[in-house]
Amino acid sequence: MEDHIKEAVEVCSEESFGESYDKEVALQEQARNDGYEKGIEDVALSMLKDNVDINTIAKYTDLSIEEINDLNTD
Predict the structure, then answer these.
(1) Are 14 and 27 in contact (CB under 8 A)?
(2) If both were cysteines, with which of 36, 47, 48, 70 could 52 make a disulfide (CB 3.0 to 4.6 Å apart)?
(3) Distance CA 17, CA 11 (A)
(4) Domain count within the chain
(5) Domain residue limits at 7
(6) CB of 44 within 8 A of CB of 66?
(7) How many Å separate Cα 4 from the centre of its chain?
(8) Which residues of 4-27 are buried (b: 16+ CB within 10 A; e: fewer)?
(9) Which of 35, 9, 8 is nearest to 24 (CA)?
(10) Of 37, 35, 26, 34, nearest to 8 (Cα)?
(11) Looking at the whole model, is its pTM more than 0.70?
């Protein structure tokens, strides 16, 4: 999140308002996507802790088996 704030401050100091606005919108969208992905990972991790089958987790989160296994090792 701090990276997104730092980049937003840099965008605001640029000369072209239109360019700054476009970049700010893109940064907001990226931050929203990052939050969504983090939420999906949190759900998958909770399911793992509840001993839900990894194939079921993959089905409902759209994460790959590899991605789920990576969460389990963190």
Answers:
(1) no
(2) 47
(3) 9
(4) 1
(5) 2-73
(6) no
(7) 12
(8) eeebeeebeeeeeeeebeebeeeb
(9) 8
(10) 26
(11) no
Residue 11 pLDDT grade (very low, low, confident, very high; cuts 50, 70, 90)? low
Whole-number Cα distances in Å, 17 to 8, 21, 46: 13, 6, 43
- Nearest of 50, 2, 46 to residue 27 by alpha carbon: 2
63: Cβ–Cβ under 8 A, 6 or more apart, which residues? 40, 41, 44, 57, 71
Give pLDDT tens digits for 15-67: 566 677 778 788 888 888 777 788 899 999 999 999 999 999 999 999 999 99
Residue 53: CB atoms within 10 A of its CB come to: 10
